[in-house]
Amino acid sequence: MADDKFDGFGDHDVEDLADGDDGFVFYVDDIEDLDNSGVGIDDLDETLDFADVAEAVGLPDELPALRLPAAAELAASARAAELPATLARLADWVGDDGRPVTDEGDLEPDDAAAATRALAVHPDELAFLWEYALTSDWVAFDDDDLDAEGLDEEDGELDEDDEEEDFDGDALAFGVEHVSRGETAGRWASAADDDVLEAWRSTFVSVLSGTFDVIGDTAVDDAIPEGVAEMELDGQGIAMAIMLFLARGEGLALTDISEVMLETATAEMEPHEAAAAKQALTDCYGDPAMLVTSMLARLGAIHPPTAADGAVRLTPLGLWAVREELTGIGLEIPLLPASVEEMTAQQLLLMADDADQEEFEAEADVWVAGREPGEAARELLRVAADEGPDSRLLAVSVVTRIGGAAEPAWRESLGTPELRPYAKIALAGLGEDPDAPVPAELEPQPDDLAWVATDMLVLACDDEEPDPESVAACLGDSVPAGEEASLFEMISRASHPDAVEVLTHIGLHHPDKRIAKDARTAAHRARSRRSGSLS
User: Fold this and answer.
1) Terminal CA-to-CA distance of the chain, rounded, Å?
2) What is the DSSP letter of 445?
3) H-only helix segments in 27-161
4) Are strands 178-181 and 99-100 parallel, antiparallel or unpaired?
5) CA–CA separation, 429 vs 410, rounded Å?
6) Is the dihedral of CA 8, 10, 12, 15 positive or negative?
7) Taking the mean position of all CA atoms in its chain, how far away is CA 39?
8) At CB < 8 A and 24+ separation, what contacts does 117-122 make?
9) Region of 520 on the Ramachandran plot (φ > 0 left; ψ -120 to 50 alpha; else beta)
10) Non-local CB neighbours of 380 within 8 Å, separated by 6+ positions
11) Burial tier of 143 (Cβ tally within 10 Å: 0-12, 13-18, 19+)
12) Angle formed by the axes of helices 50-57 and 316-328, nearest 10°
């Protein structure tokens, strides 16, 4: 990008953006698959929205729970963002009396020049600001113009006398010639947190789609290869937001986001055409992922990539906005209390999805401190007995940190099959004399050892993205080298409901062929025992 071109980054130094190696959540084919899902990109008359993209990438009906700050804190973050403040100034400049626009909905040249001076922005930036202002109602087409050109005020449809073929879904098709300060500007000026957040969210959605609309509308001229016009940029900003939402605290490398955007945008082109189109697009505007993320940074929706890992992460405000969009189309995303003291034990464990070990332990200590320790232990262990291995291991780790005050709860758990192995280990560790022999009733039995090992191995058995190295490492933590076959036999005889699946997964994905074969043999025995054909 030439030095005098608008790069969108404002105060953010694009030269210092570091590469990262975070994994993808979506892949090139995911957006391309829209063409096979009944929502084909080429067949749409309107811009793709969150519902279209969520369907294309196959989002499940329920996503992990999310913890967010209180609405007042989110609204304060929204008010502090630079981009909506600039759009508010643009709306104020347009004013209630309004400004004339061209047939394409752009400001007249003299007004465009005046606007850039009033806002102190680069002329190229005004195209983006104007797109956001129009699509999120910071400025609005006058009703009188719409009525005069045949748009029904009640339902937005054509009068019968108008020729339907002249309507392309855009108010500009009716020759609107005037805009004025819009409803979003009024919301933003309101003192109500809800109004400020809704104004901010509408701007967020406009940035996700409108940034690429501007590129698509203005990137093609005589000096740019024709292929740029054929690039499929629609929906990619929303796809990026969903990717970042699922990545949560880990974030995604900007380089990865850029790669998937450019590859998806040119997926239908021949390789040489795709290469030329990518080069032309980046020559004109720079990296499109960099442009949209810089706009989102100015909106306060993301933390820009840093030299530490090159990862882009949604801010709490950005997480809130994406959750609002996804729940608005019917997805379930539980919202956790902002204060950890108000959480149930189950909610506390859900919070671990968005925290590293140190952060989770600190929050768990605060949660326990707000309760009687013995009752806190009982509440956690009740959840541990009812949930899967991941929640069980988390709950056990928190109860173990409680120490001696949890002893009564551990003893009550000796009669619960899911908890008995952990209760024996914990109670043996609570003995006053570490050198004293373990009481017979606390000696782990083969089924106990197999249960704990299976719980741990479940966490390494991801059928969607199998990782042989992770399977090998987890198994190595569970059993000394050379004793794998004995552990597999114990697991095959144990009562753990996930025994067959774990053994099967190890048999398929362990990198050591001998160990994999032993696991497959044990899986066969486990299935036979469950069917009653093997004792």
Assistant:
1) 72
2) P
3) 28-32, 50-57, 71-79, 82-94, 109-119, 123-135, 143-148
4) antiparallel
5) 11
6) positive
7) 22
8) 118/89, 118/93, 119/86, 119/89, 119/90, 119/93, 121/86, 122/6
9) alpha
10) 345, 348, 349, 395, 398, 399
11) exposed
12) 80
Amino acid 93 reads W
Please report, in tens digits, the pLDDT of each residue of the chain (535 residues total).
333 433 443 443 333 333 333 332 333 333 333 333 333 323 333 578 899 999 988 899 999 899 999 999 999 999 999 999 999 999 999 999 999 998 888 899 999 999 999 999 998 899 999 999 999 999 998 765 444 444 444 444 444 444 333 333 344 444 458 899 999 999 999 989 999 999 999 999 999 988 888 876 654 444 455 666 777 888 889 999 999 999 887 889 988 998 888 888 888 888 888 888 888 888 877 888 888 999 999 999 999 887 777 899 999 999 999 999 999 999 999 999 989 999 999 999 998 887 888 989 999 999 999 999 999 999 999 999 999 999 999 999 999 999 999 999 999 999 999 999 999 999 998 876 777 788 888 998 889 999 999 999 998 887 677 889 989 999 998 888 889 999 999 999 988 999 999 999 999 999 999 999 999 999 999 999 887 655 4
pTM for the model stands at 0.76
Q: Which of 415, 367, 369 lies closest to 395 in space, CA to CA?
A: 367
Alpha carbons 303 and 294: distance in angstroms, whole number? 10
* Contact (Cβ atoms closer than 8 angstroms) between residue 128 and residue 166: no
**Phi, psi angles (nearest 5°) of residue 232:** -95, 90
Q: At residue 107, what is the residue type?
A: L
Amino acid letter, residue 24: F
